[in-house]
TrEMBL record:
Protein name: Deddh 3' 5' exonuclease domain of three prime repair exonuclease
Family statement: Belongs to the exonuclease superfamily. TREX family.
GO cellular component, one term: cytoplasm
Residue stretches making up the Exonuclease domain: 13-194
Taxonomic lineage of the native organism: Eukaryota, Metazoa, Ecdysozoa, Arthropoda, Chelicerata
Length: 223
């Protein structure tokens, strides 16, 4: 999204985005990485520092085109058997689009490690399953650089033992957030950057059946 040179554009709504997927791009071919869950929490920017009561939430499970890996199923609790009754990503994307356009613009999508995972995956899925949906009107921000700025030289996040409530965070957090790069969704790489190292040998747990290439398992028989 273009803006006049030297003029900062005030974001009115922050939408925190988290995606679950069939697997990680460094463990499987990128084309096999599909979204299995979309979670969005939107908050007006001016209310972010106050008790977070005014929230807009959307969480949808998605039927992927490919099989969920065993590791992903164990982490997320979602597998092809559970997801076979869920809408496709194309159907889900229409709901997400309508949800976003109910919010006050300008809108910024915020995701932790979003530049390397969430944003490229979102754009790739939109291009494949919902090419008619255009999210370039929204900004994108990766929250990871802001937290690295706050934590400084802390090599291990587990070393940080004190967790502050939102209202207790000092101005350094907000300065780091303001300094974070905000780019148009159209500038995101449409492909996940990591190359596959090894294709997983295990898929969705056998106890719940397998679904390869987006074909759901047969329905359970009544006993």
């Amino acid at each position: 999204m273009d803006k006049p040179p030297g003029q900062r554009r005030q974001i009115e709504t922050l939408v925190f985005l988290d995606l679950e997927s069939t697997g990680l791009p460094d463990l499987m071919p990128r084309r096999k990485v599909n979204v299995t869950e979309v979670a969005l929490i939107a908050v007006p920017r001016k209310l972010l520092r106050t008790p977070l009561r005014c929230l807009h939430k959307l969480s949808l499970c998605v039927q992927p085109r490919n099989a969920v890996t065993l590791d992903a199923a164990n982490i997320t609790g979602l597998d092809n058997w559970d997801l076979q009754w869920c809408p496709s990503f194309g159907e889900t994307a229409q709901v997400v689009e309508k949800f976003l356009y109910t919010l006050q613009p300008p809108i910024c999508l915020v995701a932790h490690n979003g530049d390397k995972f969430d944003f490229p995956l979102l754009r790739a899925e939109l291009k494949h399953s919902a090419p008619g949906i255009d999210l370039t009107a929204f900004f994108c921000c990766d929250s990871l650089p802001a937290f690295r700025e706050i934590l400084g030289d802390a090599a291990d996040p587990q070393e940080v033992t004190e967790v502050l409530a939102l209202g207790e965070i000092d101005n350094e957090f907000w300065e780091a957030f303001e300094a974070a790069d905000i780019t148009s969704a159209s500038d995101s790489d449409e492909q996940l950057p990591s190359q596959p190292v090894e294709r997983p040998t295990h898929q969705t747990p056998q106890t719940k059946g397998l679904a390869y290439d987006g074909i759901p398992p047969p329905p359970k028989k009544e006993t």
